[in-house]
Design brief:
Elements: H1 12-22, H2 25-35, H3 41-48, H4 52-71, H5 87-97, H6 106-117, H7 123-134
Helix pairs in contact: 1-2, 2-4, 3-4
Length: about 150
């Protein structure tokens, strides 16, 4: 099947720089199309060791939203899909900023997420998420000895 003409807006030099820095097969696909617009889906798939359907899907994504849409897959920088996103994220943000409702520990937040949003998340994952996204700290009063001043 012949490649339906797709107009690649990025220059060949830009694509080569991107490919050099990321080694992403999606960018490699764009570069192949830029070099030879008549290259078939099957040939591109063989060069990249991917399925023809995958190449077609990538081209559709590029047509919809250019290179940003093609490269974005809903994952964070470490490659994992975020558990807390969308409405849950906004709700949690509102709850953390609200001065009337305070969480004493990360366990309180973990329990709240389980009850309200049915999200089961590991304590350490939640702690790391809250520290990076909201700059939170666990502010629990530690027990003190009575004689200490």
């Amino acid at each position: 099947m012949k490649n339906k003409s797709i107009i690649i807006k990025e220059t060949e030099i830009e694509l080569k720089k991107l490919l050099k820095s990321s080694k992403n097969p999606k960018i490699h696909m764009l570069l192949l199309i830029k070099i030879d617009p008549q290259m078939s889906f099957t040939n591109i798939a063989k060069v990249l060791s991917k399925r023809r359907a995958t190449i077609i899907e990538w081209q559709k994504k590029y047509k919809e939203g250019e290179i940003e849409k093609l490269l974005y897959d809903g994952r964070s920088k470490n490659g994992k899909i975020a558990t807390i996103r969308g409405e849950v994220y906004k709700d949690l943000e509102k709850k953390l900023k609200d001065p009337e409702t305070t969480f004493r520990t990360y366990l309180d937040i973990k329990d709240w997420l389980e009850k309200k949003h049915n999200i089961i998340i590991k304590y350490k994952t939640l702690q790391k998420f809250l520290k990076t996204k909201f700059k939170t700290k666990s502010k629990v009063a530690r027990p003190r000895h009575q004689k200490k001043k």
